[in-house]
């Protein structure tokens, strides 16, 4: 039912470290790019959500396993998939895969909370978003 | 027995995002700074470990809860504490605290593996390091 | 003669700062992405150059003017254009433009040197690269 | 007359790239840390400037020469020195030096403009700041 959204990511020098591989914190950036593009694919622009409703999604918790390193110039795929929907929370599973999808590089779980952009207090997810998340095209 | 190591962190513009708070992936950088300084305080320089033994510590898994946001110009404390010692693995608990220690901003668990710097294969932790980790001054 | 190469860049949270705009150092990342993709379009993969010839391009000098700020979620264009070719040096002009190209956000000059990947000593640019740079398709 | 302000910088993995050296854009972060700490040493907190006066300093132009690479774990010094003071502009010269000051790693010029934090329009520098900049202790 919940489809897996995929977004291509290229590894540039900015993403790597002196170990010769992608710096561990930077996979979180790749994951966020995939979530942003997933929301956009559902029809939602986060700058509009903020302007129109004073709402943003923030990361409340995150866990990630590093299974295989990505290197400079690699073409990767970042995935995003809803695993649980609450009143103000979304749980997502996200993978970083090699370009040919034959290797899982990282495996992550992310808990997002929908909050007011100033107070950071949890808010009910706007119904049109909830609908779109529940019924992706 | 295992003492909590503390390292001061200042929040600069580079660490923040347009939400007005520290970007979620950047807390991982603060945590790594604290681990690096904890190893240095025990007497180990990671560039020397790499040169002398071809060994590096890599992050194998990580989980983090975001409890309260840090903002531009905040003075923070990043902690590092060993919670488990294996043959080639270390488990650490790490907090990011407000300067006065009255607020926990993030709470994280990090699993480190001691690997060969080229093959990234797990290796037994060098005995002098294991000794130092077990018996901090 | 020298065509202007263009590469699309999307602004994510990772790129912004608490001022609400793209952090000034991050435009340099956008510029490097464009240079990397320009080289790729000419047929050169930098990881291959490094492996096959032990050669990398490094930034020797850079100047940038910040004319108009980019914001979260903006779709931008990063350009790359050769302005001078030396034995071991390339001079490039690079712009960051708004998506519709009606606004110049930043204007930069970058001097690249072709160096040995270990010694960082300048080297004559490999002839096939020089040919491609001089005669882009 | 204008003293050179110095701020220590340690190179962590986050700062390096797969070339084994500090990623070129990250020296700009080191330079900004030094500017922030220089302002703080003069008695000004940028979050207070923003809150009290709706003013921020932004980088209007920047040029940098990369003379010698910094590596993982290096202890560096970032300097900041005023070279010109205008109504709404400051020109600064900034170096990144090796710990023992015997090597210049980068040499940079930065033009800062004092702007309104919302409109980004140039503003006269607040007199107390101008006084402090002109007469450092």
Explain this structure:
The structure is a homotetramer of 137-residue chains. With 137 residues, chain A is an alpha+beta fold. Chain A has a single domain, classed as Hotdog Thioesterase (Thiol Ester Dehydrase, Chain A), CATH 3.10.129.10. Helix content of chain A is 23%, strand content 38%. Chain A is built from three helices and five strands, in the order E-H-H-E-E-E-E-H. Chain A has a five-stranded antiparallel sheet. In chain A, strand 3 and strand 4 form a beta hairpin. The first copy, chain A, is elongated. Chains A and B meet through helix 1 and strand 2 of A and helix 1 and strand 2 of B. Strand 2 of chain C pairs antiparallel with strand 2 of chain D, so a sheet runs across the interface.
**Dominant shape of chain A:** elongated
The CATH architecture of chain A: Roll
Top-tier CATH class of chain A: Alpha Beta
Q: Termini of chain A, distance in Å? A: 10 Å
The helix/strand order of chain A is EHHEEEEH
- Overall mean pLDDT of chain A stands at 95
Are there runs of chain A of 5+ residues with pLDDT below 50, and where?
none
Biggest sheet of chain A, in brief?
Answer: 5 strands, antiparallel
What is the count of DSSP helices of chain A, taking H or I runs of 4+ residues? 3
* CATH topology value of chain A: Thiol Ester Dehydrase, Chain A
Multimeric organization = homotetramer
Summarize the entry for a quick read:
The structure is a homotetramer of 137-residue chains. Chain A is built from three helices and five strands.
Task: Write a concise keyword list for the protein shown above.
homotetramer, 137 residues, alpha+beta, Thiol Ester Dehydrase, Chain A, five-stranded antiparallel sheet, 38% strand
């Amino acid at each position: 039912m919940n489809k897996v959204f995929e977004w291509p990511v290229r590894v540039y020098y900015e993403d790597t470290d002196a170990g010769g591989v992608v710096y561990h914190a930077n996979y979180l950036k790749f994951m966020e790019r995939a979530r942003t593009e997933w929301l956009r694919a559902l029809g939602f622009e986060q700058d509009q959500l903020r302007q129109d409703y004073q709402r943003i999604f923030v990361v409340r918790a995150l866990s990630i396993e590093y299974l295989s390193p990505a290197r400079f110039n690699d073409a990767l795929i970042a995935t995003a998939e809803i695993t649980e929907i609450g009143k103000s929370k979304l749980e997502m599973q996200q993978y970083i895969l090699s370009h040919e999808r034959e290797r899982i590089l990282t495996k992550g779980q992310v808990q997002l909370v929908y909050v007011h952009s100033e107070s950071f207090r949890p808010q009910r997810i706007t119904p049109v978003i909830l609908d779109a998340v529940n019924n992706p095209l």
